[in-house]
Amino acid sequence: MKPDATTTLETTAAGAVARAAGWMAGALLSFTAMAFAGREISHELNTFQLMTYRGALALILIVVIAAAVPGGLRRFRTRRPFLHILRNLSHFVGQFGWFYGVALIPLAQVFALEFTTPIWVALLAPLLLGERLTLARLGAAAMGFVGVMIVLRPGTGLFNTGSAAVLIAAVGFAGSLLATKRLSATEHPMAVLFYMALVQTPLALGPTIHDLPLPSPVGWLWLLLVALCSLSAHFCITRAFSLADAVVVAPMDFLRLPLIALLGMAVYGEALELWVFVGGAIILLGNWGNLLAESRRS
Which of 136, 181, 219, 240 has the least CB density, counted as fewest CB within 10 Å? Predict the structure, then answer.
């Protein structure tokens, strides 16, 4: 007996979600490994030095990969160089704050606070892209604020320069995502990654040009892991979103929090904080609710 069209569509959809989950697993491992490598290399290099080497290695990797693909180098052509610069100024702030926070505060706290990025996207989109500020977006922002308060619990000493840096990083990542949304209409994803490394490497090099020590052999391995994981994480997320709706993929990202919390406990002896998970879950629910509302509106 042949399956009907509905059964075939359901099977195809289920297969796409399963593949999306596989790509998200790759993204989760990439983000986790990047945080671990970033923490380890912070013992040798400051954040500017780390980002200088990370950008240079990423640039080499992108060019080598593009050169190996027929017509790959032509994908670097752009009609919007100014928007690339704006995007990477914002992303540089985000990346700097993230690596700075990774070196100072528990890894689970870094990831929980980073989950506020979509909320900043929802709030900034009306200002920068002219989109509507809906009740769903305001609700997500309110839940995000509550979640951050639970994670940091003002008065307990958890709010410090490291947590402030990660919150600023979330705003920087939001700005870069909004710019990427504009660029995606005309630019190849490889061009976005290429100009990310091309612009951000000299930005990081400037403050360190007179103080750029050579890493140890092990340090080079950590730096290479940071560069590889930063590229693989972006690639895996892009593939996941191409296979399934955002409302399906986004909740999978929350698995980053327990994964990094277990790593922090096993490797660095960081305590498993219940309130970090509660706050992170509230932030995620706010994001997910906004995605559901956007999906229905579309």
Answer: 181
* Opening angle at CA 127, ends 122 and 132, nearest 5: 60
Short-list 260, 258, 251, CA closest to 283? 251
Burial of 113 (0-12, 13-18, 19+ CB in 10 A): buried
Angle at CA of residue 22, ends 16 and 92, nearest 5°: 110
Lowest mean pLDDT among 52-61, 81-90, 150-159, 212-221: 150-159
CA 118 – CA 254 distance, rounded (Å):
13
- Are 242 and 83 in contact by the 8 Å Cβ rule? The answer is no
Per-residue burial over 162-198, b = 16 or more CB atoms within 10 Å of its CB, e = otherwise: bbbbbbbbbbbbbbbbbbbeebeeebbebbbbbbbbb
For residue 247, count other CB atoms closer than 10 A to its CB: 17
> What confidence category does residue 11 fall into, taking pLDDT thresholds of 50, 70 and 90?
low
Return all residues near 9 (Cβ < 8 A) that are at least 6 apart: none
The contacts of residue 297 (CB under 8 Å, 6+ apart) are 134
HSE of 97, CA atoms in CB hemisphere, 13 A: 25
Backbone angles phi, psi at 160, to 5 degrees: -145, -170
Listed in sequence order, the DSSP H helices in the chain are: 5-41, 47-68, 81-104, 107-114, 117-128, 135-152, 161-183, 189-208, 217-243, 246-249, 256-268, 274-297
d(CA 282, CA 93): 25
Q: Output the six-digit token pair for 256.
A: 């980053």
Query: Distances from the Cα of 63 to the Cαs of 114, 191, 195, 226, in angstroms?
Result: 29, 10, 11, 17
The whole-model pTM stands at 0.87
Domain ranges of the chain: 14-297
42 DSSP 8-state letter: T
Q: With 70 as the cut, is the pLDDT of residue 13 above it?
A: no
